[in-house]
Amino acid sequence: MRTRHLIACGLATLSLAAAGCSEEEAEESASTPAEQTSEPEGAAAEPAPSGPAQPKPKPMVTVPEGPPPTELQIEDIEEGAGPAAKAGSQISVNYVGVNYADGEEFDSSFNTGVPFDLQLGASMVIPGWDEGLVGMKVGGRRQLVIPPELAYGPQGSPPAIGPDETLVFVIDLLDVQ
User: Fold this and answer.
1) Domains and CATH numbers, the chain
2) Which of 22, 48, 124, 167 has a 20 to 30 A CA-CA distance from 29?
3) Which residues pair with 90 in a beta bridge?
4) What angle do CA 85, 91, 93 make, to 5 degrees?
5) Cβ atoms 149, 166 nearer than 8 A
6) Structural element, H or E, at residue 92
C-alpha cells in the first residue's frame, strides 16, 4: 500500500513539474475560486474568434481609375479578426470577379450561394489569388487587382476573360483550416 502511495505522489510531482508550476502554486490555484481571478487593470479579455465567418452581402466592385497596374495590388477593405490564411491552408471564400477594362462581372460565388473552397498555394487558382490571399484573416474582405501575368495571361479564359486581361476581385475569407 505504501509503495502505491509513493508512486502516486511521484507521478503527481512529475505532472506538476511538467506543467511548469510548483506544488504550492498548484495547491494555491486549486483553492482559489475562479471568480476571484482577475486580469491586470486595463486588459480586456477578448474571446478568440473561432469557426467560420458569417457570409456578408455581395459587394459592389469598383474598378480603380487610370491604367491597369503591372503588379498585384492588395487592399484590405475590411480586416478580419480570425486566423490568417497561409500557404497550405484550406480556405473557404466568397468572391466577385470583374474585368478591369470594362467592369463587367465574369464570375461570382455570391450568385450561386456556394462558397469556393481551395488549398492556398497549391496552384488550384490563378497565382494572383495564391499570392494575394496570404495573410488575410477570417472575416475580412479584400480587393485584389491582378495583372495578366498573375491571372490568365495571353490565352485568357474565353469567353468571359480576354487575352492579357487585368482582373479585379473582391474576396471574403470565410474559414481557414
Assistant:
1) 73-176 (3.10.50.40)
2) 48
3) 119
4) 105
5) no
6) strand 90-99
pLDDT in tens, 66-76: 999 999 999 99
Question: Do residues 107 and 161 make contact, with C-beta atoms less than 8 angstroms apart?
Answer: no
Q: Residue 8: what are its φ and ψ, rounded to 5°?
A: -60, -40
Mean pLDDT calculated for residue range 98-102:
97
- Give the residue carrying C-alpha cell 509513493: 6
Query: Please, are residues 142 and 110 in contact by the beta-carbon 8 Å criterion?
Result: no
Closest CA to 150 of 171, 174, 173, 129: 129
Taking the C-alpha atoms of residue 72 and residue 172, their distance in angstroms, rounded to an integer, is 18
Q: What predicted TM-score, i.e. pTM, was given to this entire model?
A: 0.72
Compute how many other C-beta atoms are within 10 angstroms of the C-beta atom of residue 176: 21
Q: Which of 101, 117, 82 is nearest to 161 (CA)?
A: 101
Q: Are 116 and 94 in contact (CB under 8 A)?
A: yes
Cell of 25: 502554486
Single out the residue of 87, 80, 50, 58 nearest to residue 169, CA to CA: 58
Compute the chain's Rg from CA coordinates: 25
